[in-house]
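Dissemination and training. As part of the outreach component of the grant, students in the summer workshop were shown how a complex can be specified as a set of sequence lines and then modelled as a single object. The example used during the hands-on session is reproduced here so that future cohorts can follow it. Participants entered these lines:
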Amino acid sequence: MEKENLDDLMRQKFDTDAPGARFEFREEYWEQAQALIEADERRRKRRFLWWWWFGGLLLAGGGGLFWYGGGQTDYSADDAVQVTSPARKNNEVNDRDSNDTNAESNEWPTGKRAIDAKTTTPKSSRVTDASGSRLHNAATTTGPLSSHASDAASGSTIVSSKTKSGIATRSKNESAESAGIPANRTTDKPPQLTPSSTDAGMKDVSAANPGSDTLETSASTAPVNSLLAPLPPIDFQMYTFLPRILFFPRAAPDREIKPQKTSRFKVDLNAAATYYDTRENTPWFGGAAGASAEYRFYQQFRVFAGAAWRYIPTEKLRGIDTISNFTSGQRRYSFGYEQNYQTIRLVALHALEFPIGLRWRWNAIAVEAGIAPSRLIAVRANLLSSRQSSLEPPDLLNPLIEQKKIWIDFNTERYRQTWISSFAGIEWGTGRLKLSVRGFRMPGNVLPKQHFLSPPQKKYLFGAEAGLRWRFSE
Amino acid sequence: MNLDPQLLTAAHRGDRKAQYALYRVCFPVLMAVCVRYKRDQQEAVAAVNTGFLKIINHLDKYKRDEVPFEAWIRRVMINTVIDEFRREKQWRELTVFTDTIERAYPKEPINWNEAEQRLDLQHLEALLRRLPPVTQKVFNLFALDGFSHQEISEMLGMSEGTSKWHVSNARQQLQTWIKKEQYLTA
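and obtained this result:
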């Protein structure tokens, strides 16, 4: 039963320990501790400021995006009103022709396609179906409209249509070092100290054991008890430094006391370039950027959550979601006509995603997986607006006026607005900068429905992205 | 250890004088814990300072009615040492100590009464520090701080069997060294 005797011996010795007598307090120890405390206070302040800075940045970014998108929408709406106003003025001239067509109501809802409109208004579809795509715009007509439309290509077909109600206007988003460190140095005395019973006890034991001194003397000098003489003195340098120098020559720990960061919570910024595999079409390249927070909850395991903006390009898909609007009318006091043609071609989706997941880190490598609930916040399109004031071919005196603009629409009702994508990846890096590679899968109907001649919509979209992540703290 | 609650409150609030006073009181207690877990005094002081920082940051969580202050700071200190131990795992596992190979001594039982009289606390601490780092910590946690093998396995991320092996290994080593002294001085 030697093991019990050994444990008992050790326990008995350490239970009767009087640390107050053995370990002498030195002011230099307090100075080291004070440096550590001050470093910790500075770090807390910095963290606080970072959060404010990050919140302000998000607010400014969101406001800027909102303002910019609103301005573009104003342009297109005004332009459309300007374009259609002459046609309205010519209604009286064209009334006699409108009787022939007997067209029914030709309402252009924002969320329906021209194909649908074609089935309900066959006679007027010759005009509206010219582009063979979805009709969407807005303030083109408000009120009864009867106009002569002429096919720009052939110049022969004249169709008169009468609408009972106007086109629903496109909704637009118009919403809008610490200076307080006291100079308490070694001479400072504690303000209030209650004499402790432990201290008294320590002194008693120390008096009973005169051989016990500080730890330094016992380790380096000859022991008090002569029986201990053969025991070689412990060379701490050999035990600690030699193996470190052998295995980690450059990573030998510094003897100076440095502040150690014990936080399990880390915040980072990330950005990535994304490749979308569309298979039958040309691949796309998009991007994502955002911020995330990570919490180490058990050993190497971490949970993370964040917010990121994602740019999903769609322009490489053939015939996708082109919105055309064609209006034509006779010019007042003349035999000429004027034509207005608008094309809005969708080129990308802007989404906000909130990735949450689990990360397992082993040294410099981390493996991660999770899901990312996403919300569509805006669509980006190219707006091509052309206007011709005569049926004659364009020339110097009568030019074809074309305008191209990048157009961001926050009205995303016509598209899938929320979805969940899943991802898995690997990350490598030391220090604050990490390199990550991720693969992900998102539902295929995130993209708008394609033209009826296009291949059927895919069930899932796959992608891969490579990016960098920068941590605020190591 | 009876401390004025106002002192603890002031130390938690950031009053440097109160922190100094608390440090003076806590230092010997924390140092007694750290010298058993660390390999030299310098490392022990560094660990004490880290532990003290943790103590003043979490003073609001201390409930004086439930646990004595000394026991609470001992526990915080042990947790701090274990946290550091986990962080240093990378180099620690590759460190090999070759001095643990000892020659065999006669299998005579140790005279524990004699050993008790002969061995003082500093000597026992020196023997503990000669143990390999993981063995040293596991033995400290089990034999001196009263943690079970299950708790140790959770704290250090090892199996219970490994924890038991470390304790057994530590006992063997310590007994060998004590026998060696007994043999040489006989």
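The CA atoms of residues 44 and 249 of chain A lie 33 Å apart. Students were then asked to discuss how this feature might be tested experimentally.
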